[in-house]
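U., I forgot to send this yesterday:
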Amino acid sequence: MSRTRKPDWLKMRPPSGQRYTHIKETLRERDLHTVCEEANCPNLGECWSGQDGPGTATFMLMGDRCSRGCNFCDVQTGGMEPLDRDEPANVASAVAEIGLDYVVLTSVDRDDLSDQGAGHFAETIREIKRRDEDILVEVLVPDFRGDPACVREIIEAAPDVIAHNVETVERLQWPVRDRRAGYEQSLGVLDQVSRESDVFTKTSLMLGVGEYDHEVYQTMSDLREVDVDVLTFGQYLQPSRSHLEVSEFVHPDKFDTWGQVAEREFDFLYCASGPMVRSSYKAGELFVDAVLREGQSVESARRAARAGTR
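Result:
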């Protein structure tokens, strides 16, 4: 079956510019991976340029091969390699070289490791903070198969935002995600972070995979029940013919509506919503706009959010 032609609003501009080139060269020198490149993110140039804010780059830890095979994801599955013990220091060095103020760390799934990579995540967070405690660190973590000890190790490393993506509504977890993932398991991770810390929590949903409006609405309700602070919506795009097909190209006006519902009705701290939005889209700029430019510290803003006074 041929793939449906993309509408005009999904046309993207190729990345360019001096800052983009500098970031790319710095990453290659240190043999580092970014999910921006591995997942062919359409916003790579925009986020890396950071002309109107702190700029965002999303480092992908623990290799470029995943132990899971989600039907929406373009990252390769299998052939897991040993961890690079120098990676945490190399990431921190790259962050300093690039001059980032806001860093996103994510990873492939590493079900093959005894701690599923939680310790490697934590070490990278601490290494960045050790060099400059003012750098804001967001981590986009796997579900760690719902293991509370792994989630707790991330919390204790003290990032500023902990994200974990539910990806889609409950009914569509399979075939969208690997069978080892699950809606309740993902909610459990986010709930634990909310209960055990003052760290901001964040998640993301893809639209256009066959979801119904009432299911999206119910998902937002479920997320607020476990005190998720930040939500993003983006359009699913099929990476190749072997991946899940696009069910619908959702119009930008509908994305705007979902963003308004999220912020006004469900009281999310902020919601980035648009066809080209991805989980880490302008993460630093949006976080600063929503929290720090109001004159609050991360800690005080988080306490206010928990008290319902944001």
